[in-house]
Design brief:
Elements (H helix, E strand, L loop, with lengths): L4 H21 L2 H29 L7 H23 L2 H20 L17 H27 L4 H34 L7 H22 L4 H21 L16
Helix pairs in contact: 1-2, 1-4, 2-3, 3-4, 3-5, 4-5, 5-6, 5-8, 6-7, 6-8, 7-8
Length: 260
């Protein structure tokens, strides 16, 4: 099924590009039609995920390519939902661009995986751990898009930061649950809740950055520039944890090596 991924991904990207063009045309009926194109692209990608899951007979959450696939799907869903509630066209545009970028990355760097899961992955915590993290990453990614879009339109910067912080809280809760599920999984797989593995340390660093962001927001909700900077830095930490650790020398000794 992964052989046909390029066609599904290409069609989704094409529909999202058409959606973005229609948004730029800035006509009411064009904008309404653009949402239909965006949602159609999401549905097509979702159908591929379902079919791929059925074919490989396991959750498609093992490789980095498979998690990027989930991220593209979820971040597009979250940003369409944000647009429906906030009517922020710029956020929808940036969200679809981000989703397309991750799909393009998968097209350029496909990873073919066997149907079988190694014993450590054959756990009841596998799906909850990965899925909660992916949803969290999508929400926090959308919050970052909101924060960055404030630099493009200075008149809405403060409003965008406030809206971004609304997303940060549920994203942080899910991030916390992802760590907890991972700890339970680690206890079953390796006999310890926490192994001070490279990935675990960076996950903790990311969690602490978001905790600091929330703390500062509670104490100084009007410090918009500081909050914006911390939102972006926290997301950079998240991306390092998810995508960047494989480039570190210590990654070769990580018990999370299967997640590359």
């Amino acid at each position: 099924m992964w052989t046909y991924f390029v066609y599904f991904a290409g069609l989704s990207i094409a529909l999202w590009v058409i959606s973005i063009i229609m948004i730029f045309l800035n006509k009411n009926w064009f904008i309404n039609l653009s949402i239909i194109f965006a949602i159609t692209g999401i549905i097509i990608l979702g159908l591929f995920i379902v079919q791929y899951w059925i074919e490989i007979e396991r959750p498609p959450m093992r490789s980095m390519a498979e998690t990027r696939l989930w991220y593209s799907f979820l971040v597009s869903v979250v940003n369409v939902a944000i647009y429906r509630f906030l009517k922020n066209k710029l956020v929808l545009i940036l969200g679809l661009i981000m989703a397309s970028a991750f799909l393009i990355s998968d097209i350029l760097h496909p990873e073919y995986q066997s149907r079988n899961l190694m014993p450590a992955l054959q756990s009841i915590w596998f799906i909850p751990h990965v899925s909660v993290y992916m949803i969290s990453y999508a929400i926090l990614g959308s919050a970052t898009i909101l924060a960055i879009s404030g630099n493009i339109n200075k008149n809405t910067k403060n409003q965008n930061i406030n809206q971004a912080m609304i997303l940060i809280y549920p994203g942080f809760v899910l991030l916390t649950f992802g760590m907890l599920f991972g700890a339970f999984w680690g206890k079953i797989a390796w006999g310890d809740y926490w192994a001070w593995d490279t990935k675990e340390i960076w996950a903790l660093i990311t969690w602490l950055f978001y905790l600091m962001l929330i703390h500062i927001h509670n104490r100084h909700p009007q410090k918009y520039s500081i909050l914006q900077t911390l939102i972006i830095i926290s997301f950079v930490m998240l991306m390092i944890t998810w995508l960047g650790l494989k480039y570190l020398p210590t990654a070769s000794q990580s018990i999370h090596i299967y997640g590359r």
